[in-house]
Amino acid sequence: MRYDFVKPLISSTVWVLDRVLRPEVTTGAVSLTQGVRPAGNVAILVKINGEAEGDLMLSMDSGTAARVSSRLHGDPGANASLPDLDALAELANMIAGSAISALNDLGFDFSVLPPAVLADLPPGVARPEREAMHVPLQTECGDMAMDIILSTELA
Fold this sequence. Notes:
This protein is an alpha+beta fold.
């Protein structure tokens, strides 16, 4: 996995989350893992195409997803019981747009497909055959994880 692809994806994701969720978003230790382990039962998946191909996945538990949705709707005090999947998809669009712009500004050629929001994921490892860069994220809304699964071999 190329670091020059990964760094803009991480920084763009943190930048968007920091602006949208307020206050500051912090990252935990970044690690290279074999397989993807979602950080909960809700995941936002963005397909990336171009000089490398793969996925960007932001995952969290349903409580965090509900708080993120409430924050996106401008009501951070709301006690939503179910996440608004459209709001999470819009968050993914903001992250993907920022990340792809950052990569393309560096001279790379990337594009993204519309995001998919997956709810009620079963616990365990998803895509065990793929190497991923795992980034824990801590927010006031709750903990999340970003997994970047990119391969230049598939491009």
